[in-house]
Each structure stands twice: as structure tokens, then as C-alpha cells.
């Protein structure tokens, strides 16, 4: 089965939209999704940015919030602006890394996104993350401890460095097995199509048909 | 008939993709397109940017070129990176403003985009613009002269100021009659849907159906 890597950051609004729909879209396309948490902080710093571009360029940030609000509503999802934005997703990403090795990474990721963007909870709060782990049948204390092991911390760092080596500059980002990079929730369908066909030829005809 | 304002800048790669497909998409949606040339230079300057964000953030710029190349190929359009990028579209925008009052603005705009992104010509070159005007049955010298009248120059300046008052920060931008702003070629379908329905509710069901 063809595979698509889904690189996401917990602070990212558009990653939220993708996380909530990628499995259904991938199933329709016959593509397997590999969930890849990483951190945008170092990625932005590598571009000379001290925070999210949406904070640096407020007109763009304001439009992003309205855009996500419109799309979320049409998808039947809640959306509120996190305060502060962006949220600190470091602990959540460390946990997700473990969950993605086992079979609960995608469920955990969706639950964190809903806590953050639907319920307006602080995802840097370990109590919030513990609640989610508990609801997934995981032992919160044991998982939190594993997530903060030197090995796991180093792994998240390495995964973020891989993202930078792959020229990622934002999230969500999709990578096909033949190395094609697609950026943004609005490119998910193209990324899935490319994962199967190694081209976009026919993509728009398919839409019209 | 519902209308949608299509704000475009001649240097903008994604405006090219939109210009080549908006009339067909709008016809299918039953929406009238109003073509609005403006200048991104002052818009970027208002955000503290001295050039295109694609030049300031090279990773993003590199991805943009690949993204446009993939989409253009799938649309059956040529694409080459203009040199220099961005091109200076001032004269073309002044002419388009006149053409959009008459009945040749859209044809002129598409021809300029093809000259720039398909044929790799310099759109700041009046000879290139004259060729296009001639091919459209216009008198190049007369149009160029009108385009450089103080009144027409002031009008393009005013149109760009309007764009800034409407919080535009890039191109293409779509504005619905009820004041909803959509940014980017990838938002054209949503903008057309909103122009008719004043909501995105039902937009994704429509796609799946």
C-alpha cells in the first residue's frame, strides 16, 4: 500500500483541520498515513522567525483565524483561538511520538487538537494530557515518564531536524514516498493523489468528473 | 446575479493560476467575476516587507515554485520562473484597469500572465504589452497613453489603497458582496460558494457528493 507522511505540530491550526479528516481521505484514496509529530519552533527559528508568522504578520494571522473558523464550521468542528497562540505543544509531541509507535497516536493527536481548538484547554498542561491518555486506556503517569526520557526527547529533536533537512517550513506538511513535499491542509488531496500516481496529471479532471 | 471581486497582481504566480480558470469556475457557480488589478508592492510595504515574502523566506519560495509548477502542469498550462521575480507589473496593471472598464480586461490579463509565466517574457516591457494590445484589436499607442494619464495612475493608486483598507495582504484575493475575504487560488471554490450561499455550510458535502 502506498504511504503518505503527515507531519504536524500541535500548535498549528491547519494541522488540526487535517488531523480530523486525513484518515477518511486517505482511506478513500487507498493510501496509508504515517503520523509524524514535530516542532515548528526550531523550523521558524531557522527562517529567522521568533514566533508564528501569523503573529508576525497580523493581517495574515487574522485571515487565518477567519479561514479556519469558516472551514471548521463547514466540517462540523468547533474552533476557538487558543490563548496564548501559539500553544506550547512540546509535551504533547513527545507523547504523540510514543503513541505513533504503538496504536494510539492518531487518537491521541485528534483528542489533543480537540482539547486545544474546540474546548479551549491548555495543551501544555499535563493534567489535560493525562485526561486524554486516561480516556484512551493508557496509564498517564507511565506514558508521561516515558515521554520525558532522554531517549524520547532526543528522538523528537531528531524528528524535527529531519523535517528541516527535508526543507519543511510550516505545518501540516505531507511527504510522499518519492520525496514530493506538499504544504497545507488544502494540499491534502493533491498529496494523496501524488502518493498514488507520482503526478498531478488527471487530478483536476477527476474533480470535475 | 451574485458577483465576486477577483483582486490580482501581475507579478503573482497564484493569480496566474486563478486568472486562467476563474471564468469557467464562476460560470459553473452562476457568479459574475469583477476583475480588480492592484499592486502588491505597497501592500507588502505596509506589512514591513521590502519584496515578495517568497524572496524573504526562500524555503517557502522554493515550495511555491514547485507547487505552481505541479498545478500548472495538471491544468495544462506552462510555467517558468520569471527572471527577475517578482516582475514589475505596474504598466500592465494600469492598462488592465482600462480594459476592465471596457470588455477586454480579462483577455488582456490572461495574455499578460501567459507572456510572463508561460513564454517567459518581461511584462514591464512596453513592446510586450503593445503586442498583446494589438492582438486584442486595441490601438497600443492610444491605450498606453491613456494608461499613463494622471487620472488613471491615481485610479490604480486608489484601487490599491482600497485593497489595503479591505485588509488584503496578498494575491489573489476574493471579496464577496457581503464582505467576506478569501485569499489564494486554492480558495476560489470556497469564495464562489460563499458568494452564492453566504456560508460554507454544505461546501464539503457538495464535494463528496
From TrEMBL, chains A, B:
Query: Which residue ranges does the record assign to the DSBA-like thioredoxin domain?
Result: 4-190
Q: Which reaction does it catalyse?
A: 2-hydroxychromene-2-carboxylate = (3E)-4-(2-hydroxyphenyl)-2-oxobut-3-enoate
Cited InterPro entries: DSBA-like_thioredoxin_dom, GST_Kappa/NadH, HCCAis_GSTk, NahD-like, Thioredoxin-like_sf
The GO annotation for biological process reads: glutathione metabolic process; naphthalene catabolic process
A Pfam family hit: DSBA
Into which EC class is this enzyme placed?
A: isomerase
**Any one GO molecular-function label of the UniProt entry:** glutathione peroxidase activity
Where does the signal sequence lie? none
Q: Which residues form the active site?
A: 12
E.C. number: 5.99.1.4
Q: Which UniProt keyword terms apply here?
A: Isomerase
Identify the domain of life. Answer: Bacteria
Family affiliation: Belongs to the GST superfamily. NadH family.
> What protein is this chain from?
2-hydroxychromene-2-carboxylate isomerase
**Organism encoding this protein:** Microbaculum marinum
